[in-house]
Specification:
The structure is a single chain. By secondary structure, this protein is of the alpha+beta class. It is built from 3 helices and 6 strands. The strands form 2 sheets. Strands 2-1-6 form a 3-stranded mixed beta sheet, covered by helices on one side. The protein has a 3-stranded antiparallel beta sheet with strand order 4-3-5. It has 2 domains: 79 residues, hypothetical protein PF0899 fold (2-Layer Sandwich); 34 residues, no CATH class. Helix 1 crosses helix 2.
């Protein structure tokens, strides 16, 4: 479960940001997880709740936002969203113009979006 090591690194960041802000408590943590990031949201949630015990974020709420896969066609410029690639025929080509020149825009994301702190 690599989610535990990711959460451990997240807590390094949380504690550093809280210390910089002079916070006494972290009340909310919002994390963005891409749907193809390799991170399983429920395992991440479990790891977070286990790890937070005895930390500055021991009573923090965790909010997870899932970032959907999105490509952009380099030829026609159209955005290709998850619903466009859910078809079994999708082969990383643009469903609008057929170009194979597509660029991943989102879906592999994994980052801390927001912290709510008390001073």
């Amino acid at each position: 479960m690599h989610e535990l090591s990711i959460v451990a690194e997240l807590f390094t960041i949380i504690e550093e940001k809280a210390r910089e802000a002079g916070a006494s408590r972290v009340t909310k943590v919002r994390v963005l997880i891409g749907e193809i990031s390799g991170v399983v949201p429920e395992l991440f949630r479990t790891a977070f709740h286990s790890y937070k015990k005895g930390t500055i974020a021991d009573r923090a709420r965790l909010e997870i936002k899932i970032t959907r896969v999105k490509f952009r066609c380099l030829r026609c410029g159209k955005e290709i969203k998850t619903r466009d690639i859910s078809s079994p025929d999708f082969s990383h080509s643009c469903p609008f113009c057929g170009s194979k020149e597509v660029e991943l825009q989102s879906g592999r994301d994994l980052y801390l979006e927001k912290l709510e702190l008390e001073t």
